């Protein structure tokens, strides 16, 4: 069981992001296709980055009793894909939230009824 703790923590964290996403309809609950492409392309890009770093000897897999030991490729643990998914999903949710807040502020500034003006 100890070999699954990191993967389980990542899955719980991704689940928490999904709950926030569902509650505020920011990404997958707003446009699943676009969100899937965004997260998928981000994960793919980071996996290619990791692959290049591994080939060049810049990155190396560390040993931890909290990891499964399963590899996607030599020196590339399966947990890395879930971590990158968490990273990309969190970034997408943050972007969508800040974008929505900025739109609300802009709409509030341009609403003449809010300042007591007549349209």
Automatic annotation (TrEMBL):
It is found in: Membrane. GO terms for molecular function: intramolecular lyase activity; lycopene beta cyclase activity. It is a multi-pass membrane protein. GO terms for biological process: carotenoid biosynthetic process. InterPro entries: Lycopene_cyclase_dom. Pathway: Carotenoid biosynthesis. The keyword Isomerase applies. The chain crosses the membrane at residues 6-24, 36-61, 81-98. Keywords: Carotenoid biosynthesis, Isomerase, Membrane, Transmembrane, Transmembrane helix. One of its GO terms (cellular component) is membrane. This is Lycopene cyclase. The lineage of its organism: Bacteria, Bacillati, Actinomycetota, Actinomycetes, Micrococcales.
């Amino acid at each position: 069981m100890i070999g699954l703790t990191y993967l389980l923590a990542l899955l719980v964290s991704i689940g928490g992001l999904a709950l926030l996403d569902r509650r505020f309809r920011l990404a997958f609950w707003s446009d699943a296709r676009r969100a899937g492409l965004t997260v998928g392309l981000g994960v793919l890009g980071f996996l290619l980055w990791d692959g290049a770093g591994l080939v060049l000897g810049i990155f190396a897999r560390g040993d931890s009793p909290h990891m499964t030991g399963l590899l996607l490729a030599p020196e590339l643990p399966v947990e890395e894909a879930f971590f990158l998914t968490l990273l990309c999903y969190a970034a997408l949710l943050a972007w969508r939230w800040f974008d929505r807040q900025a739109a609300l502020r802009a709409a509030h500034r341009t609403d003449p009824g809010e300042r007591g003006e007549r349209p």
